[in-house]
Amino acid sequence: MSAATLTEGPYDMSDLVDRYLGAVSALLPKASRDDIVAELRDLILNRVEDLEVQRGRPLDRRELEDLLREIGHPIAVAGRYGPGRGLVGPEIYPFWLFGVKALLAVAAFAAAIPTILAVMVDHGDVRLVLRAVTDFIPTALCLIGAATLVAAAVERGWIKLGDLSRWKVSELPRAPKSQDWFAKSRFDGLFELAATGLFIAWWTGMVAFPIGSVIHAGQGDMTLAVTPLLRELYWPVLALAILQGVSSLFLVLRPGWTAARDLAEIAGAVGGVALVWVLWPHQPLITVIAPDATAAGLANVQRVLDMTLKITLWVAAAINLVKVAAHGWRLARGR
């Protein structure tokens, strides 16, 4: 079929097709523009011919408009025929999604902890929860945007991966013959690494904690006075955090280095138990000072806070003891 078909009959409709193809052509890359336009023209003419055979007459201008509309808007058609221009391609997308999940989990955790504490001292003021949600949403969008920009830069080769792209099967962790309750995925390692980095940034003063030492509550300001012992433990705590970060880094980058990770986990767990041992006799670790609060209300808040910290220390000690046993067992068995 030739293009002359469109000029036959009572209507000259070649201008519609030319307009349509011109709009598509303007959105196509110059190198492949002519070939794509020729292919698209053949498609349109074949569709016109089929419809005319079905109806036994030439198409009128309205029917040709409907046909071109069915084929698609020029922007959509150019997108189908042109090269893929997605920010994140199918090969990078799983890594992008993996990183976004980890970042959002860390952001949610960082927003939840101060909110829970603020609600506790402010007797459940729902406005604090709403404020946490409104603060989390822009943070989450910024993290997703940053992850997308990094993924797009990797996709286009602007960021070189170097050795990360030359991974080895021999460095992957062995598949356990039985269920391992203490096995961790790379996502777990990435989450731990992000959370540890956030803690180190706060501990060293690079970022501020979401709430300060003074909490503005509905019944007057409350000041949280931390025991001076924590200042004396600045370097030990920082060392333990760095050690945990190194262990998480092993899991993310070199999951096959199980022995090195087990040693780092054991050393960090022993240090964690020692830290609990040092902190326990010096309770209360945090004292609430609220001049405007009633004695009964202040005592209740202090009691809840003390109980929370005691439970936290007990849980931390138990977790670290279990980690020593579990990673020691794995190290002894060479898993």
**Portion in strands:** under 5%
* Biggest sheet strand line-up: 1-2-3
User: Which stretches are low in confidence, meaning pLDDT under 50 for 5 or more residues running?
Assistant: none
Secondary-structure element string? HHHHHHHEEHHHEH
Please give the domain count: 3
Major sheet attributes: 3 strands, antiparallel
Question: What's the total helix number?
Answer: 11
Helix content, binned percent: 55-70%
What would you call the shape? Answer: elongated
Oligomer: single chain
- Category from helices, strands and their pairing: mainly alpha
Number of strands: 3
Q: Rg, please?
A: 32 Å
Separation, N- and C-terminal Cα atoms: 70 Å
Overall residue-averaged pLDDT value: 78
